[in-house]
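One record is set out below.
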Amino acid sequence: MPVTDIKQDLENLTLTVTADFAAPVERVWQIYADPRQLERVWGPPTYPATFVDHDLRPGGRVTYFMTGPNGEKFAGYWLVTAVDEPRSFAFDDGFADIDFNPNPDLPVAKNTYSFTPHGGGARATYLATYASAEALQQVLDMGMVEGATAAINQIDELLAS
């Protein structure tokens, strides 16, 4: 399993997931740069993702929806704020309605995904920062840790294919 550590820090308003992959940084980067590859790992296995827009450059927008086991759709968006290919990218990650309009009732995370060489492969650090402890607790209560872990743990299979 790639996920090696998860830290929830309500004081600093962060959720950090660390994962190690048996692939070079450039290969792991490709997963996030290619929406068709990203679809295979973004949602948990029972909530596969479909990416509609994918503009991974500063100022770009990424939109997607995940489809639940009963056909229900859950949409989200990224507003890309920084890209340092293949080392990192940052984005505001929010929930949306099915037309990709931001849902103001749900938290927005400021995310930074970074990739560094580690042990002959790559280490990914997924850092999400929230505006308040309540916002972080809300996504924790929604199952963010379990969902992110299940999604990230799918990456090994994609890397092996």
